[in-house]
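Issue 218. Parser rejects a valid record. Input:
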Amino acid sequence: MAFEFNLNTILQIITLVGVLFAVYHFFRKPQEKSEVIDAVFNERMTNYEKTTEKSVQLALNHSHTVESKLDAHIKESQDGNRTLIRIEALLEQHLKQ
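Output the parser choked on:
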């Protein structure tokens, strides 16, 4: 009888440990999953912010380049207009004579 009592006690202890382990995992697994999801979200958000910042910087650089080229074109056009006005004035003076 002493052997059965010890075997039953051992089985009860093993069962109790198993139940405690199952309860621990029942509550711990969702928390681990949540922590992983949060970490992935934070990493994606950081990458998104970096990518967005690079895109904005690239767009600003591009718009500055376009603006510089436009300014140069306007200056060339104004210089060309001045030259045409001078030629026109010279032609008018020459034709009047």
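Fixed in the parser; the record now loads. The longest helix spans residues 2-96.
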